[in-house]
Amino acid sequence: MTALIGGAMALITVKNVLLMFVGVIVGILFGAIPGLSSTMAIALFLPVTFGLSTYESFALLVALYIGGVSGGLVSAILINIPGSAMSIATTYDGHPMAKNGQAHKALGVGVVFSFLGTLFGLAVMIFAAPALARFAITLQPYEYFALSFMALSLIASVSGQNIFKGLMAGFMGIAFSTIGMAPIDGVVRFTFGNIQLMNGFTLLPAVIGMFAVTEILLTVVKPVSADKVVQQEREHIKGFGFSFKELIGQTKNLILASSIGTIVGFLPGMGGSLANQVAYVAVQKTSKYPEKFGTGIIDGVVASESSNNASIGGAMIPLLALGIPGDGPTAMLLGAFMIHGLVAGPMLFKTSGELVYLIFAALIICSFIMVVVEFYGIKIIVKALNIPREILYPVVITVCAVGAYAANSNMFDLWTLLVFGILGFMMSKFKLPRACFVLGFVLGSLVETNLRRAIQLSRGSIMPFFTRPLTVVLLAVTFIIIIRTVWVQIILPMKNSKKAKGEYA
């Protein structure tokens, strides 16, 4: 605590505070605009840090990180388009709340629990970083495969009432993730001679297309407007839009989702894009009313936003303790360390201990700044719902196209945006859940990559999967989830249906 207070004292200067305010605001804007992200915000501002001191540089970059992750909830709630992959699950209940006239409340819940989730992850980072880093370094591809496979088994849980359609959508996502060069051996698959498909489909344009373009096409076919309802409800709402009783009632969901976010965050390559979906399913499974998820309840927003923000603290653990970035934004931060002649890893705590605790303090202070900025911005943000759709959606699709292109400066990403938009529209018409497709698309490559690495490491033997304790536990949990889901969603309804027919006869 003494070191943390010392880092905060070194951080508190007029210039640093201004940089953090500017960084948080810019980060929120980057997070809220579909196609942009905290990773892109940090990448664009890295050259700016050449003219700043080390402390000033990390104050700015950390602020961009915090703002960027939280900003994704804005577009996810208001127009059902996640600002980034970290906010996909926020659309499941956030947008239905907005359509039901509770946009202010949904935004308030998202902001507050983004803040609390961030603090949870940072607390774990500050007090448990060394132990968690030592644990993370012992994990091998066997554990990563088991964890990814367990997450993949959750497809059945987010499939809605029809498990078969959910599995179909999930397998479609996995199939699309296999396009391009195979991991490990680099064999080209399913490209049909198209060089552009060699690297497969980029996640960000695919997700934006699946949600943004699809949502616009669905609105064009069947216009939906909740503007009047939202206006009437908003006039009677103050503060964040929800009560202290509701805040306390979400304690269990906050702890569960934030724990998942922190754990998934500190596993390199996972990040908030996976954490928010896994946490959403976990909270749904432990809820007393799982059938209400997806209809517009705050539990779903709490699960998504607290988990993806908690992943910030988790992702910073391997970066600072091991020099291994946990996700895209921390990979950019690793570049910042190199720019300033520093080496992230175990020796950083000894050689630049004050900087480490300054980063800790900056993360905490920026979290408070984020709450203040978004609290005073909610009333302005909600007014976006009053913009006529014929004006709003052309602007949105233009911004999405710019964001998709800017990620890699590649025209193929624009075609990806269009293809996945049309695919998502067709899936919606056939009532195939897009959430399952995205989960399969995100996890398919992780499962395949880690399985092939594990098989290569064991020289073709599958025995390590059944001899390593953590792998066995994760696989056992996976099969329990699968058996329980089959029982609840297939066998039990069939039994009840036969029983009902017998009673009728």
From TrEMBL:
Residues 18-439 form the DUF112 domain. The chain crosses the membrane at residues 17-46, 58-79, 106-132, 144-164, 171-192, 198-221, 355-378, 390-406, 412-428, 435-451, 471-492. Pfam families: TctA (PF01970). Keywords: Membrane, Transmembrane, Transmembrane helix. The keyword Transmembrane applies. It comes from the Bacteria. The keyword Flavoprotein does not apply. This is Tripartite tricarboxylate transporter permease. It comes from Fusibacter ferrireducens.
